[in-house]
């Protein structure tokens, strides 16, 4: 009988100990109510976001995939041989397939994601598709300290697509990039997707699609609070609102209270005035120079930049 070599490995990177109730309650008690965008991504939220990426108005995913497909061999050359590719927030691992196909000398792929079941399923599929690559699935919140599996490759390359970097506030972004540069060593690299500044009409359409999938995605946050925190939000009393704030260089996403109302969450009462909002997410946009300047301050040197023809999106290869 032929022996099948096992090339997928599962690891627990960290145990998330976030007190969701306290964190959400503190956010709703602030004078300007806000919630961390990480709470948008429960199972239903993740499914809705996958739908969003397919929408005609939502350009980032298809544009980044276009860049990856067009320049994958240049990216593979930049990463070099005897490397391990480490993806932060791997999700369905769709984008990384393009790189894995081009990086012929890649030894190891490490997928890191907070959603354990989804992660393990994706890692198993990848291990079958790429039998010559050692696939490690690490269940962890990559923004916190986590345990990495022991790797045998000479160099590490972090892959961070999707312009997720734009969801961080400026100080959080700097801290995250500095921590990543310290996680790597001299000569290691980071391939990162960065959304670029563009016409406000394009940005506003991307976050206010005609099918209202983004609205469902945003409002699903209240469903989650009702289910997990014993809240009593009525979704029909809130509406989705997203817009490009040019002065701050970001798209803001909010939930707007349509009336004066009082919400119960656990044992607490939260009052909303008509028109008051919960700020649920930011998505910062950059010029290429703005992002390169930020990366330089965090211990990176910009080696390559690839863009689409419209210069709507960019992928940067940074070196420690």
From TrEMBL:
It comes from the Bacteria. Residues 21-318 form the Histidine-specific methyltransferase SAM-dependent domain. Coiled coil: none annotated. The keyword Nucleus does not apply. It holds the Pfam family Methyltransf_33. Keywords: Methyltransferase, Transferase. This is Dimethylhistidine N-methyltransferase.
